[in-house]
Amino acid sequence: MTVEVQIDNHSGWRVDEPAAAAALRSALAAEGVDSGEVGLEFVDERRIAELNGQHRGKPSATDVLSFPIDGRALLPEGVPRQLGDLVVCPAVASAEGTPIATLLVHGVLHLVGYDHETDGGAMLVRQDQLLAEVAPVVADPA
Known about the structure:
Layout: E1 3-9, E2 13-15, H1 17-30, E3 36-42, H2 45-56, E4 64-68, E5 82-88, H3 90-96, H4 100-111, H5 122-131, E6 139-141
Parallel strand pairs: 1-3, 3-5
Antiparallel strand pairs: 2-6, 4-5
């Protein structure tokens, strides 16, 4: 079993894509998810602001957006798990001083059902635990 990670980089930044995929897989494995598919797209500030406006009603740039699909739901035998998509903006992450690995772990937790706005801090505690096990992901302006 494995988690397939599809990565697209439209951010204008150089991102260590193998390290990003490894960070996603590590966080998912720690959450008990060892198979499925996840999409990861790195975008610029304009694109993430557009997506944030369309999906959250906040037309401003943000560092990460998560679009969960199956999460941990029970699926019929033979149906591949579609975990969902993460969209990350390296430029915003850099401006805010947030490591890319932190955003990937944060996004994964949303994909598997955590919600820091309603869970009394459980997601952020789990995020800190997982970050101790995830290697850094380098991203530099191209």
